[in-house]
Every structure is written in C-alpha cells, then in structure tokens.
Amino acid sequence: MLATVLSRAQFGMEAPQVRVEVYPAEGLPRFTIVGLAEAVVKESKDRVRSALLTAHFDFPAGRVIVNLATADLPKEGGRFDLPIALGILVATEQIPSAALAQCEFYGELSLGGELRPVRGVLPAVCRATKAGHRIVLPRPNFAEAALVQRAEIAAADHLLEVCAHLRGAAPLEFARAPGAVAIRSDYPDLADVRGQAHAKRALEIAAAGGHSLLFTGPPGTGKSMLAHRLPGILPPMTDAEALETAMVASISLQGFRPEDWGRRPFRAPHHTASGIALVGGGSHPRPGEVSRAHNGVLFLDELPEFDRRVLEVLRGPMESGTITISRAAQQAEFPAWFQLVAAMNPCPCGYLGDRNGRCHCSATQIQSYRARVSGPLFDRIDMHVEVPRPEAGQLLRDDAGAEISAVVASRVAEARAIQQARNGCANAAMTNRQVNAAGKLNRAATAMLEQAMRRLGLSARAHHRLLKVARTIADLGASATIEPHHLGEAIQLRRFESAAVDSAGVVSR
Fold first, then answer.
1. What is the enclosing helix (H) or strand (E) of 41?
2. Spatial separation of the C-alpha atoms in residues 252 and 257, rounded to whole Å
3. CA angle 385, 440, 212 (to 5 degrees)
4. Global pTM?
5. Which of 39, 37, 45 lies closest to 9, judged by CA?
6. CATH class for domain 190-409?
C-alpha cells in the first residue's frame, strides 16, 4: 500500500511542502530514500528502523522506497524522520491513514523513538497555517511554533504518542496558538551614559528616523556604550516585524528563543568576521549577521579593523534591505533591514585631537587607517558624530536627573508615528520621490544646503540622506516643514572631519 505523509522542507525563508511517499515492495531487504536528499536525510534510514523496532512495531522485510517529492527540491536535516516512520507504519497497515489528512508532521527521531527538536519551525508553521493544515511536532518546538497566530499545533515526546493519536487511543490536544507572549524590555538604559549630550541627541535622531550612525572618538569615551542603548529607545516592533525577525533567527544555526519574541536584535560581530559570516552563505544558504540584525541594530566596533572586502558587502543591503545569496543550483533571499551603528578611533593610536593624550601618528598612518573604510561606505552612513573624552566633573557628577531611555523612546515613538502617517515607513527608508515631497525647503534653507554641498563635496546620495536626517529632526520637533535650524543640525551631524597636516607635518584639527 502506498502511503503519503505531509511535511515541509526549509529553503531560505521559504518552507515548501514535501510529500513523503512510502511504498513497501517485494524483493531483497533494502531501504531507499530518493528525492534530492542530503546525507543527513539519508541517514534517517537507521534512525527510523531503530525507532520502529524499539517501539515494538514490525519493520517491512522486503524493499522500502521513500520518495520526498518534489524531486528537484533539496532536503536537509532530520525533520523528515517522523513522517518517514509514520509513512512506513501506514503503508504496512499498522496504523490507519485517515488521521493523516490535512496534518503535517516534523521531528527527528532518536534510536529509542523519542522526538527531538528541529530547526526552522516558524516558517514551516506559518506556511502550514496558511494552507489550513494542523501540525504535529516535538514538544521542545511547541513554544516557538505557538507564536504563529491561529496555528493548530499538537506536541509529542515520543513516536508512540503520535501513533496512539492516529489510532484514536489517546488523541493529542491541538491547541490554537495565541500568537503573543510577554516582551522583554531589559535593555541597557541611556541614563547610564554620563555627559555626551551631543552623541545622545544623535542617537535619538537615529532611532527616530532609522538612520545609520558612525561614532568617532578616542578609546573609552562611551562609543560602544551608546550603541548598546539604541535598541532600548527604538519603537516596539509590530507583530509582523516580530514574526519576520523570529523566522530569520529560527532558520539560523543558533535558532530562535521564544523569550526573545518582540525584542529588537542587537548583533555585534567581531572585526575578524568573514564576508560569509556577515551576509550569510554556505552550501545551503543561511542568514548572516546583517539578516540576524533585521529590524534591529548591527554594531560594528573598530570599523577600520574589519577587512575592507568584508565591509564592502554591506553596501548592497544598506540600500535595498535584502541580501540575495546565489549558488550554482539555488538562490535564497533574506531580509536585511538593519540600522548600522559603527565606531572607530580617529587614528591608529586613538588619541588624535584628544586633550588628555598626545597622538604620535604620522599623516600617512592616519590616511592609511581611514582609507581602510571606502568612501562609498562612508557616504552611505547618514550621521558622523564625534564622541570626545568627557570632563572629569561629568563622570563624577550624580546624573539623577538624566533622561532615561523610556522618556527618549516616547519622543522617538511620536516621531515614528508622524513618519508612518506620512510615508508608511521610517524616514531612512523613503524613496527619492518621497524625500523630494517631504523635504521641501524654503529659500534660506535651500541656500544653506547649496553652500554645504559645495563646501563638503556631498554626493547626490549624501544630499538625499541629509534631507532625510533633517526631516527626522523636524519630526522630533513636530514641525511640518524643514526649517534652517533643522537643516543646520543635520549638516553638523553629517560632517566627517578628516585630519589636516600642516607644512611642519604636525597633525591638527
């Protein structure tokens, strides 16, 4: 008898349906799995055989042919163990087939028949729910799968529990997922940062408009501390954003933790990270750091220490919000809408322009250090902010009256609401047409912008990014138009001052 069990593969962000077809045939004993299955899938033969025998089921004495349709879709992982085992039991009439209708099964089997969790459950449950199917999966995957609204899910610990359900002896309870859990809010607080009012203001503007940001300053001035506090002042994620972010984490090697639902991701890869680690890749494409930071923050500390070729891969996703990974036989696309926050020293020793330290770097060393980051990448960063060493009095003063993150976050949320009503997106994601419509300037502001473009040598891209930042500053002030002081502040936040060298070879500002 031919048996068919429904399951799903994992391919990028998609979860295409797989029909697990099992047919016991006459002939010498042989267990064959076809359908473009990877080695891990083919190894399920031994896991399934052992699980069935230890659960006291009969294993077919002749040939067993398993087809994972469609044949041209790559299959990987141990998620097909449970559907293969059920297919064998149905094909040999040890359990009825009626209960398999409109139900999908995922799960890896141990040799004793226990169900083990699998990776990439969220995309599969989303697609199964849209198709109107119910889902049976391992209990450790239940909390993750329950995040999908209206999903009907049953969790089991052992193959025998699933078989008892199909026989009607002990039906599993299908729970309709509520799709909402408590959201963690234990972000570091902005009030912990002493002084640095200018940098805090830039961080607020970045949060309000979704802009990228570069902090430049000597070591120990609080650049990393500021960056870690950006997620705490960003607006809460919508359910759609939270689900998409969770799906990216679900298919990654680390997996998704249900307690992180709705929490803005903060990714801070080390400067030794490779290009594949940053954008994703592998024989079976997996999301990299830029996708793991989707709807959150990607923090690159010590920016010039990254390999220049690695940094160049950021240019595409910063513009498009997606990353496409192409291989000879397959292509996968991952979302990558992230806020880039970078930090760097002004020179190799770090003390250029620092009042408490003397820089010993030559002009050539400074130029070589800054040249590690390309001009096109600098051009894509909306704001360049200097973070000087704070005064001793600022560090010792009791900042009991300092603004906490919740106060700043309320202003950011109000500005984002204005942007959503006007454009349906944050200012950083506006198209050129939307920028031209929302960033109209009066005569005084236009003259100021023309002068800034000539003196700073701004590109057309930088011009549009400058208008986006100015529009965000106006939104924070609840202004319907961009006034000259809004534009002036945006220009000050855009300037990246390079070191000047006088005729004596002394580096100065």
1. helix 39-42
2. 12
3. 25
4. 0.90
5. 37
6. alpha beta
Quote the CA–CA distance of 79 and 128 in Å, as a whole number: 15
The H or E element spanning position 383 is strand 383-386
Burial class (CB in 10 A: 0-12, 13-18, 19+), 136: buried
Q: Which of 381, 389, 380 is nearest to 356 (CA)?
A: 389
pLDDT in tens, the chain (509 residues): 899 999 999 988 999 999 999 999 988 999 999 998 988 899 999 999 999 999 999 999 999 999 999 998 889 999 999 999 999 999 999 999 888 989 999 999 999 999 999 999 999 999 999 999 999 999 999 999 999 988 999 999 999 999 999 999 999 998 876 555 556 667 899 998 888 899 999 999 999 999 999 999 999 899 999 999 999 999 999 989 999 999 999 999 889 998 899 899 999 999 999 999 999 987 778 899 999 999 999 999 999 999 999 999 999 999 999 999 887 767 889 999 999 999 999 999 998 888 776 888 999 999 999 999 999 999 999 999 999 988 777 676 766 667 899 999 999 999 999 999 999 999 999 998 999 898 888 889 899 999 988 888 888 888 999 999 999 999 999 999 999 999 999 999 986 643 333 333 333 33
DSSP code of residue 190: G
**Euclidean distance between CA atoms 343 and 29, whole angstroms:** 63
Laid out side by side, the sheet with 103-105 consists of 30-34, 63-69, 17-25, 3-8, 103-105, 134-138, 152-156, 175-176
Domain ranges of the chain: 3-176, 190-409
User: b/e per residue, 169-185, with b = 16+ CB within 10 A?
Assistant: eeebeeeebebeeeeee
| CA distances, 507 to each of 134, 215, 357, 411 (Å) | 69, 20, 13, 40
Structure tokens at 451: 């002068």
Class of domain 3-176: alpha beta
